[in-house]
Specification:
This protein is globular. The strands form 3 sheets. A 4-stranded parallel sheet has the order 6-8-9-10. The protein has a 3-stranded parallel sheet with strand order 1-2-4, with no helix packed on it. The chain is mainly β and about 150 residues long. The chain has one helix spanning about 125-130, and strands spanning about 1-5, 25, 35, 45-50, 55, 70-75, 80, 95, 115-120, 140-145.
Length: about 150
Amino acid sequence: FINLPNKLIQIAELAFYNCRSITEISIPKGITKIEDNTFIYCRKLTNITLPAGLKYIGWGAFCDCDELPTITIPQSTTEIGGHAFEGCDCLSKVYCTSTTPPSGNENMFPKNAESFNIFVPTKSANAYKTAEYWNDYADIIVGYDF
């Protein structure tokens, strides 16, 4: 388990690139942006806590985190980069708590998207299903009461 210091305000791009021994990590509240490829190839990562206040999840931020089963994207998140969770083959549940769909990009989630669900606020389900890039996942977007 990696517990980053609460005073941390930035994590550099590629900071945890190919760290194969990380299984759990908690991102501190001060982090508002997860840079591109920050956790790419952290193949043993099974649990990550994203902080309230997080605004941006970068391109390929969690790409090929093979063991990650679920992720909760905080309400504050306004953008998810392309390929952010691509290659997360064990991903079965994504909880996106924002009532407004974050802007997205291509291949945000694994190509085997039919094997999991994206849970969004019930009143926003249609907005997600029709939003650019989210509409690629319309069949697996499910309304949920957070």
